[in-house]
Design brief:
heterodimer, A: about 450 residues, 2 domains, about 35% helix, B: about 425 residues, alpha/beta, FAD/NAD(P)-binding domain, 3 domains, five-stranded parallel sheet, 16 helices, 16 strands
């Protein structure tokens, strides 16, 4: 059994799964329940400045019958009296000494306000403080949340105030609503933050009601951008996480990163770990299914680690980061083609239409006698199950024309029916970077490019 | 909606939630096999995805563009043999319930009133007569009306719809559905003249004078004679079904009912008897299970209903007492060489007479061919009207479709609809080209 426990900037927990600062961590009673279910830690819903909330605060994006592929919210930080929050934090920590209790905070951008909140949090016995520089709605209109995260100077300055006041580990939570996530991360590192976490929610408008023409959800007839989170944002989060992992300054600082953004299953979790996270935070999946999902998060991750020979989380963290590269370093001689397994193919022809309409027109329909057929070529009098199934042509990749774009692989609804098969290269490895340095004219002039292609026998069709 | 006690529509409508779940499950195959398998080639993935996108009006239109009798077909089609049988999800999982999704769209369309989805083209000035208001006739009439022709449908019976109205058990299709479709065809501008029998009140010559073209979709005739003593006491299966739909209160159902024949109509008759209180219902068939023409799923259904089957059993005499049926004398049979239908023919086993207890005997052994075709000088093939690829008969300008041309193979409502549609297209090109 793999050891799932972590020590994240001095914050210990029995597994890497923390509830993110959000509605699931709104009260002591909830967090007691979560810890009973097995959560390794919780980041208390942000405390700080006084707020009032509105109804219809959660929107969601549904697709193809799947509910809540993403949630969108305009909920603010905790609207419960701060004294009650602080008392409950202390109670929870006393009851659960082995779990990570981190408190998220956001106050007005004044040194004294931050110093006060840090002191009050530290008095609870909590394990760490997370600075909420990410909330993209409401608080940002008041100069807090993402208004801080989006301004590196501001970020560094405020983090500095906190660091001078704090004895507990401090995590800076970054907003993804920024062009380059590395910039505020560097600012946080420069200010001495102990750790980083990302991503907070993305600015979003989740929809328009086609009946009333109001924004969804409608808050008394009005709507506006809210924070977007859940399975749909995972790829964005993975990219930003890896951007920190490959940045020399941020990675060189050795600050641990708590990853979040759409983690719903143990597989998502493993991917975040592989791209550099050493603690994981979860919100939307819990809001969808409840605290009980922690069981498979731990069980699945543990089984996968055992199968892969990982004995602890440290061994997994960042393991795939060396694979992150840039286009200019990709081997242009790398070749793969799609191959359809006729035995498992159900002949839905989704690969055929995708390839022929939108990719490289290299999938054919082949009749049983080997002849190529066009779609819909049957006689209008032909009908019935036997004829329709019996005469149905088989999609087949014309490998010599396949550029290996992988679209068919992606649309195929049958697991393992289409494989991307790596072919031996027919020319020496080369990268755009090498061409730019060795044959710069090829990168600037189409005729030079054509000569280059001719030399290497590169055929574009 | 008529509620027929004991014979309410068997499959419940999908709930909106079920329809959404199932329509999302459809893979949206390209050049889909379900569409190929459908005799009218409805663009099935398209109408299903329109359910998923909450475009039910567009979904109904997609169906009706290919098949004007989409509501009937959604209910009566042997989907296991057609669209659903070809669904790519069937092999390893569970096919999409295409018939029921189609019904979902159709029910929605009809719930808004008679669908008026199609604009009819400008009047062509051409007049077309359609003989018989069954599925083929309605389909042909509707398609021609859409193209701007003036269509008159002559129907022998009081109500339109043909077998959909009179011959499909309510369990599968309530009468109202068939009648609503007639109304939709009427709304396209088609004129209906009921109670007019072709060959009696109406001659081909009259039609040829008054109309530019004729489409014969008169279906088939009565149930043939078995030619056995006591036959006059046997109830006709089609009349049995008809009464169960239109006059259930006066339907006489025996305690021990024997149904002769093993096609889908026989199964319908047996089901009616069972559901209307018969204690024991037995289907007797002179060949074996392998030769029966009922669909496999119908056979399974009947067995679940508690209908018993006596294969290799040939009725030879109805026993009566003062015209009351008291039993059915049968002989056992064995199978010999294939006959003209390609099925092995039964022959009597000597000294095998026995009596099946029965107080009602129903026969459902197919229908006779139309006698009028030959009388009108139209060339027939084994009693069926012969047509060319354009559904034109040996007489120029006279077209035909539906059961009356189905010389071989299974006949079904949806095939009749396709005949009507293709014939309409052929008639239209003939009548409008060259302009």
């Amino acid at each position: 059994m793999a050891d799932l426990s972590i020590n994240f900037a001095g914050i210990r927990s029995p597994n890497p799964f923390w509830l993110a600062s959000a509605p699931p961590t709104n009260s002591g009673a909830q967090i007691h329940k979560a810890f009973e279910a097995g959560w390794g830690g919780a980041v208390w819903k942000t405390i700080g400045a006084p707020v009032l909330n509105v109804s219809n605060r959660y929107g969601a994006w549904h697709y193809g019958g799947q509910r809540m592929l993403a949630i969108n919210n305009v909920e603010l930080i905790s609207d419960r009296p701060i004294e009650i929050n602080l008392r409950e934090i202390a109670e929870v920590k006393r009851a659960w000494p082995d779990r990570a209790v981190v408190v998220s905070a956001m106050v007005e951008s004044k040194p004294q306000a931050w110093a006060d909140i840090v002191r009050r949090i530290e008095d609870t016995g909590a394990d760490g403080i997370e600075l909420n520089y990410g909330c993209p709605h409401g608080m940002s209109e008041r100069g807090m949340g993402s208004a801080v995260g989006q301004d590196p100077q501001y970020c560094e300055e405020i983090t500095g105030w906190v660091m001078s006041a704090a004895k507990l580990p401090v995590i800076v939570k970054l907003t993804p609503n920024i062009t380059n996530i590395v910039v505020p991360a560097k600012a946080a590192v420069a200010a001495g933050a102990n750790a980083l976490s990302l991503i907070n929610t993305l600015n979003s408008i989740v929809g328009v009601d086609l009946e009333t023409l109001e924004i969804t959800p409608s808050i008394g007839g009005k709507g506006g951008h809210g924070g977007y989170a859940g399975p749909a944002v995972k790829p964005i989060a993975l990219n930003m996480l890896s951007a920190l992992g490959v940045d020399e300054t941020v990675a060189g600082s050795k600050k641990p990163i708590s990853g979040m953004g759409g983690i719903s299953t143990w597989k998502d979790a493993a991917e975040f770990l592989l791209l550099g996270a050493s603690s994981l935070q979860v919100c939307t999946a819990v809001m969808h299914y409840g605290y009980r999902i922690i069981e498979d998060l731990c069980d699945g991750l543990s089984n996968w680690m055992d199968a892969k020979g990982f004995t602890n989380i440290r061994e997994v963290t960042g393991k795939s980061l060396p694979r992150i590269s840039d286009f200019k370093h990709f081997d242009l001689a790398f070749r793969a083609v799609a191959r359809i397994d006729a035995a498992s193919c159900i002949k839905c022809n989704l690969c055929y239409v995708a390839c022929n309409d939108t990719a490289h027109q290299c999938i054919d329909l082949v009749a049983a006698n080997g002849e190529l057929v066009q779609p819909g070529a049957y006689d209008v009098r032909s009908n019935g199950r036997q004829e329709a199934v019996g005469t149905r042509a088989q999609p087949r990749v014309r490998e010599q024309d396949c550029v290996g774009c992988r679209l068919c692989y992606n649309v195929c609804p049958v697991e393992a029916c289409i494989r991307m098969v790596e072919l031996p290269p027919v020319r020496p490895a080369s990268t755009w970077d090498e061409i730019s340095r060795g044959r710069p004219e090829v990168t600037e002039d189409w005729q030079a490019m054509e000569r280059y292609r001719d030399e290497l026998g590169i055929r574009i069709h | 909606m008529h509620l027929v006690p004991g014979l309410e529509e068997q499959l419940p409508a999908l709930t909106p939630q079920e329809a959404i779940v199932e329509s999302n499950r459809c893979l949206f195959c390209f050049d889909a096999p379900c569409t190929h398998a459908c005799p009218t080639h409805i663009d099935i993935p398209r109408f299903i995805k329109k359910i998923a996108t909450d475009n039910l009006l567009g979904s109904a239109k997609t169906i009706l563009e290919a098949n004007l009798l989409g509501a009937t077909c959604a209910r009566v089609c042997p989907v296991q043999e057609l669209c659903e049988g070809a669904c790519v999800l069937g092999s390893e999982h569970r096919p999409i319930p295409i018939g029921r999704l189609q019904r979902h769209s159709m029910d929605d369309a009809y719930a808004r009133g008679v669908p008026r989805i199609f604009k009819t083209a400008a009047r062509t000035g051409k007049k077309i007569a359609v003989i018989g208001a069954g599925p083929a006739g309605l389909s042909c009439a509707g398609e021609l009306a859409k193209r701007g022709h003036a269509v008159t449908v002559f129907e022998r019976r009081d109500l339109g719809g043909g077998l959909s109205t009179y011959g499909i058990i309510s369990l599968r299709e309530p009468v109202d559905i068939a009648l609503a479709e007639v109304e939709m065809i009427r709304a396209l501008g088609v004129e209906f003249r009921a109670g007019v029998e072709f060959g009696r009140e109406l001659s081909l010559t009259e039609l040829q004078v008054d109309f530019d073209a004729v489409f014969v979709s008169a279906g088939l005739g009565a149930t043939p004679l078995l030619g056995i003593p006591g036959e006059e006491s046997i109830v006709d299966g089609l009349a049995y079904i008809e009464q169960s739909k239109l006059d259930l209160r006066n339907l006489q159902v025996g305690r021990e009912v024997v149904v002769i024949g093993a096609g889908n109509t026989a199964i319908d008759c047996a089901t009616i008897a069972k559901r209307q209180g018969a204690e024991r219902v037995t289907i007797v068939y002179r060949r074996s299970e392998a030769e029966m023409s009922a669909y496999g799923h119908e056979y399974d259904f009947a067995k679940k209903e508690g209908v018993e089957f006596r294969f290799l059993t040939q009725p030879v005499e109805v026993m009566t007492d003062a015209k009351r049926v008291t039993g059915l004398v049968c002989v056992s049979t064995e199978l010999g060489e294939p006959d003209g239908s390609g099925r092995r023919s039964p022959r009597e086993v000597p000294d095998s007479r026995f009596v099946l207890a029965a107080d009602q005997v129903v026969k459902a052994i197919g229908q006779e061919k139309l006698s009028i075709a030959a009388a009108l000088g139209i060339v027939t093939e084994r009693g069926f009207i012969q047509v060319n690829d354009n559904f034109e008969t040996s007489v120029q300008g006279i077209y035909a479709g539906g059961d009356c041309i189905r010389t071989r193979g299974a006949s079904s409502t949806v095939m009749a609809v396709q005949d009507g549609k293709l014939a309409a297209a052929a008639m239209h090109s003939r009548l409008t080209w060259p302009i």
